[in-house]
């Protein structure tokens, strides 16, 4: 949301103009005289009353502060709009290219990934519920000895908040604990993890290959945990059919344990 704009300082500027009008009325003698400078921006005339000079000086300072505040507010708005626009552009890029293309894209300019995640965190700050927190709570209520693979880990919140061993995976990261790679081709060993997580990270035209990779690294009794934006699984908004999506995952060998649909998100736990 954009912050409300500050009130303008039109009142301060208007007082300056009325003062200028009074000065013009005073200078109507037959011999031309130079117009005195505005008291708000120049030293006052010695003949001016001290109290009046003080009030006008304060008014001029107030106008300058208000004008500066408006400028700052406008710059903040412009930065927010540019940042939001950049995030939407990068988000669209991730949804419409392959995982390999996305990996190469951010590898060429890692700073873009920082821009994306800053925009992502800004968007998430307005959500009433953070899906990653639901997953973290779920893990804390299960076996702490489980090994976890967090596909599309972002800021690695899962690894930072649970006792489990967590392989944090993403396209790019300055954090040495995060594995930077194409999520369709991770360096994890086959049948090496107990839980595979996709929290708002099934992005790209080849996202089914991410699920196949999760299936490869999961143990036979492992868990696949998915949290996704509801609109992506809503045919009415151009998303995938949720029933077909579930059946496609089941065809990989999983069984649906629970599915929770809440405002904005869909959470699935499969075994």
Automatic annotation (TrEMBL):
SUPFAM superfamilies from the UniProt entry: S-adenosyl-L-methionine-dependent methyltransferases
Residue numbers spanned by region Disordered: 1-75
Location relative to the cell: Nucleus, Nucleolus
Comp. bias (Basic residues): 12-27
One Pfam family this sequence matches: Methyltransf_8
EC identifiers of the protein: 2.1.1.-
Entry keyword annotation includes Transferase: yes
Cited PANTHER family: RIBOSOMAL RNA-PROCESSING PROTEIN 8
Name recorded for this polypeptide: Ribosomal RNA-processing protein 8
Organism: Eleusine coracana subsp. coracana
Chain's gene name: gb08951
